[in-house]
Design a protein that fits this description.
The chain is of the alpha+beta class. It is built from 11 helices and 22 strands. A 6-stranded mixed beta sheet has the order 9-2-1-13-22-21. Strands 7-16-17-18-15-19 form a 6-stranded mixed beta sheet. The chain has a 3-stranded antiparallel beta sheet with strand order 5-8-6. The model has no long low-confidence stretch (mean pLDDT 95).
Length: 342
């Protein structure tokens, strides 16, 4: 049985695992390593330590389905809607730009529930706080090292983490990447952002007429969402939650500052936009060094095969675009590349 390691438990990695389990002709042993403490990647959903029912999306806020992908990826949308993982976004988002035929969806349990659904379908062995540091070639297998444990060997490795992290890997992989491949990887560019999640006591009222709002006149703040309102979830037992996303220039300016200092700056700007905002009981500040892909490699077709025997392939939105359909496209391309190897 082929041992397959997928590095990264975000949308692309989890869907790759689910597709491999479903589509490959013979059984495979699937392992997923994730450096964070939970799955989701940039579809991260944080929970209040005071009440786990109170959640906030710190990454992606909703999914926009265009007419093109409504046809191309229909089966994926149908499955998620049938399971109640996605539902149409009906709450008012001020400043949202809508194109003809577009349809927006939210996830009642937070967008990380999409990733968790695919991981469950995959039956993969998932390990968190596994940060890959080295990949070496040993007897026609990949020996993969992570920060805390002993190296393990795999027949196939799929890398779905942000592209700059691939370039930071040590070991034989650094010499096996060709100059052309290195140029392709180095051409990937990301924007950066901060997100601040705020959790409130049950019964707290945040009196605004919208569920989300795009801000165009503030140097720090780009988007605000009353997260439970965005998902049409009102409960007398669970307090509201709010998320703020910063502008890219703000994040670039403060990227190397302490999270505590940045959180204070974001909160000051939020209070100027929403004066009289109640005091939160818990806050969670997230730095997205690699937020959204600005440029992907030309002609990468959703994946980049770095080595063929044994097989090592890269996937993720770094090779397509930073949205749900970009990750689905990449996962499908990785699957196609792997079909002949398993």
């Amino acid at each position: 049985m082929a041992r397959v390691l997928i590095v990264g438990a975000g949308l692309t990695g989890s869907l790759c695992a689910a597709l491999l389990r479903k589509e490959t002709p013979r059984p495979v042993h699937l392992t997923v390593w994730e450096e964070a403490g939970d799955s989701g990647g940039r579809m991260a959903t944080a929970r209040s330590p005071c009440n786990p029912q109170s959640t906030v999306d710190l990454g992606a806020q909703y999914i926009t389905r265009t007419p093109h992908y409504a046809k191309k990826h229909q089966s994926f949308y149908d499955e998620l809607l049938a399971h109640g993982i996605l539902k149409p976004l009906t709450s008012p988002i001020e400043g949202m730009v809508m194109k003809e035929g577009d349809c927006n969806f939210v996830a009642p349990q937070g967008l990380s529930s999409i990733v968790k659904h695919y991981l469950k379908e995959s039956g993969a062995e998932v390990s968190f706080r596994h940060r890959v540091t080295q990949i070496n070639l040993r007897n026609d297998k990949w020996e993969v090292s992570e920060e805390r444990g002993s190296p393990e060997r795999f027949d196939i490795v799929v890398l779905t983490m942000p592209v700059p992290q691939i370039l930071q890997l040590r070991g034989d992989i650094a010499n096996l990447i060709s100059e052309c491949q290195r140029q392709q990887l180095e051409s990937v560019r990301y924007s950066s952002r901060y997100a601040l999640g705020l959790f409130y006591e049950a019964g707290t009222k945040i009196d605004v007429p919208w569920a989300g709002q795009y801000i165009t006149s503030n140097p720090c703040t780009r988007f605000i969402s009353i997260d439970n309102k965005k998902r049409n979830i009102e409960s007398s037992e669970v307090g509201p939650s709010l998320v703020v996303h910063t502008t890219v220039p703000f994040a670039v300016t403060y990227l190397e500052h302490s999270t505590e200092d940045v959180q204070e700056l974001i909160y000051q700007q939020l209070e100027s936009i929403l004066p009289g905002l109640p005091q939160p009981v818990v806050t969670k500040c997230q730095k997205w060094r690699y937020s959204q892909v600005i440029s992907a490699p030309a002609n990468s077709h959703g994946q980049l095969t770095l080595h063929r025997e044994p097989f090592l392939v890269c996937g993720g939105d770094g090779f397509t675009q930073s949205n749900f359909d970009g990750c689905v496209s990449s996962a499908l391309c990785v699957l196609e590349a792997l079909k002949n190897q398993i």
